[in-house]
Amino acid sequence: MPAPAITLLTDFGTADGYVAEMKGVLTTQAPWVPLLDLSHEVPPQDVAFARLTVARYWRRFPVGTVHMIVVDPGVGTSRAALAVESEGRFLVGPDNGVLSPSLFALDAHVVSLRVDASASPTLQGRDVFAPAAAQLATGVPLDQLGAPHDPVRLRTPQPRRGTDGALHGELLTIDRFGNAITNLAARDTGTVLVAGQLVRIVRTYGEAIPGELIALVGSSGLLEIAVRDGHAAARLRLARGQGVVLVPA
Q: In the CATH scheme, what is the homologous superfamily, with its name and number, of domain 160-248?
């Protein structure tokens, strides 16, 4: 039975023909399977951003969905090309940690894809990942695509609790609204210390006045630093990896 859909996440943008080339392969080899463009606006070569994006969506699609992720600064090198079966879904992409959200499931099964000598060393999304995704979407068993492989697994860093009871975390990424997403889950009450400023935690943006610096739990379940009707990252000059502290009440 064909997959419910093949999804696409890349850093290719849409100004060039790279996405179109991949779609040409997919629609030729899996013509009855819907293609869903999730985003082609991942910042170029930003594996960490893509990993966090994959974590948000891969389980939310029906069982049998094939997720194709191509954010691949190591394309053409000795890094492996992977296909994964995890919790009934399939993922295809480079072995650079971008597929990590699916790799910690107990039933995760990983193979290293065969890379033909004729494959482009700069566009394996077209020549390696798209054919593999099409095969999975049309019912080809995972084990027929390659050999078992031990993949790169990247974990979100865990916050640590200080002797004063405060949770010390870090900023994981900045979204397009300028919100800085942290690795804090805000299970405790209190305030947030970031860039030398104490910030109160609110439940919704509507609880803040326009221009107010706030913290709130976003849809990912993680604490975010934001500005009501503004751009927190620009205002505080925030960057990935910067420290943040949840100070208990």
A: Bacterial fluorinating enzyme like (2.40.30.90)
